[in-house]
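Figure-free illustration: sequence to structure, shown twice.
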Amino acid sequence: MRALFLSILMLLSLGLKAETFNEVISLDERPDGVVFEILAPNERSWTRTQPKLLQAIEQLKHRWPDIDIAVVSHGNEQFALTTEKASVFPELHQSVLNLGEQGVDVHVCGTYASWRDIKPEAFPDYVDVSASGPAQINDYKALGYVLVTDFAF
């Protein structure tokens, strides 16, 4: 069931216009916003993703200080963001809290969490539980945000 869900999520995401981070940072004009999509196979994926994500956000804020940025996590990695996992991933939780203080919204997929019997209350206040990760991305796209799925440098 989980493999099917992840496959469906990936197919839904393919229909969205995505840019690499290098393409976005090279744009002549500031986009309305940038939404980073994180869709990974396990909780530990955050430890590899986090430094790249933070560096990409820092570069965007340096280039365009007033740019709106969001992060949507909707694979198995999102479960590293539960309150229960804060002691296992303290640096991740602190960085997500810091992002929120900088105006960067971090969302997880409530639908996928519910399939694992994880309620929205299982996530700390600094993590927004969206009804659906793909729908949240579509909402940002409708606002003119550019979707970034590849932020490797």
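We now fold a second protein in the same way, so the two outputs can be compared directly.
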Amino acid sequence: MAGRRSLTPLDERMLLSVVRELPPRDRCLITAQWFTGFRISEILSLKVGSVLRDGEIVSKIGVAPRNMKGGYGRSLSCG
């Protein structure tokens, strides 16, 4: 994709400085997207139970195909 690249270390530090000032919900959304690589629509489709079980973060997070771009395909997971 045109314009797609990894964050440089400077970009990461700048992002972290902005994210630290955000409300917890927004901080969580941005951090989850950053570490999983999911699209924002995929992140927004997640439920708390998709990422937390018994107070612990799960090792694999799955996104249902209906919530993926195009609405079809295999279940996407990150872990």
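Summary for the second example: The chain has four helices and four strands.
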